[in-house]
Amino acid sequence: MHALERRSPTAALALQDGTVFLGQGLGAPGIHVGELVFNTAITGYQEILTDPSYAGQIVTFTFPHVGNVGANLEDFEAATPAARGMVVRATVTEPSNWRASQPLARWLEAHGIAAICGVDTRRITRILREKGAQNAALAFDPQGAIDIEALKARAAAHPSMVGVDLVPGVSCTQRYDWHEGPWLHGEGYPRAGDSGPHIVALDYGIKRNILRSLAATGCRVTVVPATATAEEVLALQPDGVFLSNGPGDPAATGAYAVPQIRKLVDSGLPLFGICLGHQMLGLALGATTEKMPFGHHGANHPVKDLTTGKVEITSQNHGFAVSEADLPEGLEVTHRSLFDGTIQGIRLKDRPVFSVQYHPEASPGPADSHYLFERFMNLVGKAKA
Ligand SMILES: NC(=O)CC[C@H](N)C(=O)O
């Protein structure tokens, strides 16, 4: 068979603006609707698909060859993948990697995710960049029976991400302790987090590599549900509190979490937030958040630490941001994106409280920003002394 021979499509992707892409489907048959985003990372698709912050979203990878290393039993950022779909350029091949436990197609199917391949991902990315966030409906039918008009209608009718709280679907429901450090070649995930200061992490959809990075700095980590009150957190006698990443609109989640975060700030304990945790900390301090045109999703975004003048290459995944308008007195902007100047980090001038919009735990991404976990532990150490 000639490599360029056209096969009849088994999948379609309809955008809210009416654009339709036809390709080959894999994974779970059916119709999957969500907000379409593009991610520029070259590696780490399994970590991306299992990052709970992608709940309610379909991810287009701008890197053309995705899926070639299959799926493995280790690269999970949460037990269940949260993303609804995946869009890739090249046909997904059989896996070629010593860690692979199954082909990506079977892994996607087992987790109820659909993918479409063989589509022009550069064109999709240009549409998202020019028109901003788009909802999309992805249909996969192995027989190719897809009603395109109905699919377009599904995409057009899907509600915007603004005002949507997706945290209850991904947060843990019970408290647990974390005892795993970052992955080591030949060892996997070593045991960690048995001693040291006690950190309580609020789980709004926490990535495992954040917990591993915290444990690796030499602290004990207890994870509590997103609905935990400040009183419940303080009863665990933490030396520091961590606010996690997570999906959806921070202003919607803020309805229950922000007042609790405000009380935790007032307790005087060291506080560190990442991504959604950063946005909600901003809200708790009196700032506002807003939807970005198409957000930041990738593993190569330059950010400047204004406190040291250093530039770090960061991992990013967000569609909302702390707004420039109405920044309260006492809040200092510590980091900015060198792509668009948006706020990437804040701190309180008079308290051990800070947060970043990006992902120092990477997974996937560069390790430039790991120093932030040390910065947090230094604050915890000082507060204890
Ligand atoms: N990674 C995250 O925590 C994302 C935060 C938020 N859901 C956003 O899209 O901006």
Automatic annotation (TrEMBL):
Catalytic activity as recorded in UniProt: hydrogencarbonate + L-glutamine + 2 ATP + H2O = carbamoyl phosphate + L-glutamate + 2 ADP + phosphate + 2 H(+); L-glutamine + H2O = L-glutamate + NH4(+)
Pfam name, any one: CPSase_sm_chain
Keyword annotations from UniProtKB, A to Z: Amino-acid biosynthesis, Arginine biosynthesis, ATP-binding, Glutamine amidotransferase, Ligase, Nucleotide-binding, Pyrimidine biosynthesis
Region annotation (CPSase) ranges: 1-197
Associated pathway: Pyrimidine metabolism; UMP biosynthesis via de novo pathway; (S)-dihydroorotate from bicarbonate: step 1/3; Amino-acid biosynthesis; L-arginine biosynthesis; carbamoyl phosphate from bicarbonate: step 1/1
Gene3D superfamilies: 3.40.50.880, Carbamoyl-phosphate synthase small subunit, N-terminal domain
Active site: 275, 359, 361
An example Gene Ontology biological process: 'de novo' UMP biosynthetic process
Broad class of enzyme this protein falls into: ligase
GO terms assigned for molecular function: ATP binding; carbamoyl-phosphate synthase (glutamine-hydrolyzing) activity
Family membership noted in the UniProt record: Belongs to the CarA family.
Function text: Small subunit of the glutamine-dependent carbamoyl phosphate synthetase (CPSase). CPSase catalyzes the formation of carbamoyl phosphate from the ammonia moiety of glutamine, carbonate, and phosphate donated by ATP, constituting the first step of 2 biosynthetic pathways, one leading to arginine and/or urea and the other to pyrimidine nucleotides. The small subunit (glutamine amidotransferase) binds and cleaves glutamine to supply the large subunit with the substrate ammonia.
NCBIfam families in the cross-refs: CPSaseIIsmall (TIGR01368), PRK12838.1 (NF009475)
Name recorded for this polypeptide: Carbamoyl phosphate synthase small chain
Gene: carA
